[in-house]
Design goal:
The chain is α/β, with parallel strands linked by helices. Helix content is 27%, strand content 35%. It has a single domain, classed as Rossmann fold (3-Layer(aba) Sandwich). The model has no long low-confidence stretch (mean pLDDT 96).
Length: 171
């Protein structure tokens, strides 16, 4: 399916004035659009021998499991503190307005596993960079990073330049 960008809705001044939020819910409710996005990500990484797909909270959870299914891989969530029930590894990282922390189960990734990282949106790259560091701290090999949307003007790929990054839609 072409023109997936037509299934993305712009919401001005959300969550605060001056920001144009890219709302993915119209794409998610369109079966062909959603399937096309999952297929494009899966097809791009199909020859990378992916063992695990890691989804960043929260919208990485939407695309991660169907991509993992198509790649015959497992799925692992990275969550905010206090959401995972077992022993965790965590990382704190800088945001433009403060800091945030993410966690992953300590036994989620085995040493040497090829891991595909997924999130819905690449902006400045800070969240995905932190997620990649968590996976690498467990011995995983980040085989690539995938996004539904990339905001190219924010240069997030620069922070992730050592990884193979793929975006379905670029603005």
């Amino acid at each position: 399916m072409d023109n997936l960008d037509k299934l993305i809705r712009d919401i001005p001044d959300f969550p605060k004035k001056g920001i144009i939020f890219k709302d993915i819910t119209p794409l998610l409710k369109d079966p062909q659009g959603f399937m096309s996005a999952v297929d494009q990500i899966s097809d791009y990484f199909k020859d990378k021998e992916i063992d695990m797909v890691v989804g960043a909270e929260a919208r990485g959870f939407i695309f991660g499991p169907p991509v993992a299914f198509k790649l015959n891989a497992g799925f692992v969530p990275i969550r905010k503190p206090g959401k995972l029930p077992y022993d965790t590894e965590e990382i704190s990282y800088e945001l433009e307005y403060g800091t945030d922390t993410l966690q992953i189960h300590k036994d989620a990734i085995s040493k040497g596993q090829n891991v595909l990282m997924i999130d819905d949106l690449l902006a400045t790259g800070g969240t995905m960079s932190a997620c990649c560091k968590l996976v690498e701290s467990l011995g995983g090999n980040v085989a690539g990073c995938a996004y539904l949307i990339e905001l190219c003007f924010l240069n997030g790929k620069e922070l992730l330049n050592k990884y193979d990054c793929f975006s379905v839609i670029k603005y």
